[in-house]
Amino acid sequence: MLLYDGVCGICNRSVQTILRFDRRGTLRFAALDSDFARAVIARHPGLGDIDSMIFVHNPGRPDERIDVRSAAALRVLSYLGGPFRLLLAARIIPAGLRDWLYDRFAAVRYRLGGRHDTCPVPGPAVRARFLDA
User: Fold this and answer.
1) Nearest CA to 118 among 103, 133, 105, 130?
2) Neighbours of 19 (CB within 10 A)
3) Which residues contact 7 (CB under 8 A, 6 or more apart)?
């Protein structure tokens, strides 16, 4: 499960890219302002002020785990596989530096990619993969 900023233009284009290259078709999505995401955040109080991509492993189960910021992005690249695995070389960069770079980009994402008034509704072909769509 991938939680993302539903009003961010770059985030929405990233989700569309993931959908295009997802050979397995098992990754599901929810906007950060959805009921599902609020429930995940409630279970992980340290996420209260996170405005970042969140990868949720085993959502709703006792062994639920999360990755945030650059770790979540790397998890998506690993999930996609294929040529995207080459980008996993970024793991050699210390996590603190990766997250600092992630946060710098996130701070300007609306200026670079625009902002929607509301989370765009996914197309009918993929709507089932979005919670609270």
Assistant:
1) 133
2) 17
3) 31, 33, 115, 116, 117, 118, 119
| 47 neighbors 41 (Cβ within 8 angstroms) | yes
pLDDT score of 44 = 92
- Local structure of 111: helix, strand or coil: helix
Contact 31, 6 (CB under 8 A): yes
The pTM of the whole model exceeds 0.85: yes
* Alpha-carbon gap, residue 101 to 84, rounded angstroms: 19
The residue type found at 126 is V
Q: Enumerate the domain spans of the chain.
A: 2-131
Q: What does the alpha-carbon distance between residue 100 and residue 37 come to, in Å, rounded to a whole number?
A: 23
Torsion sign over Cα 47, 36, 66, 94: negative
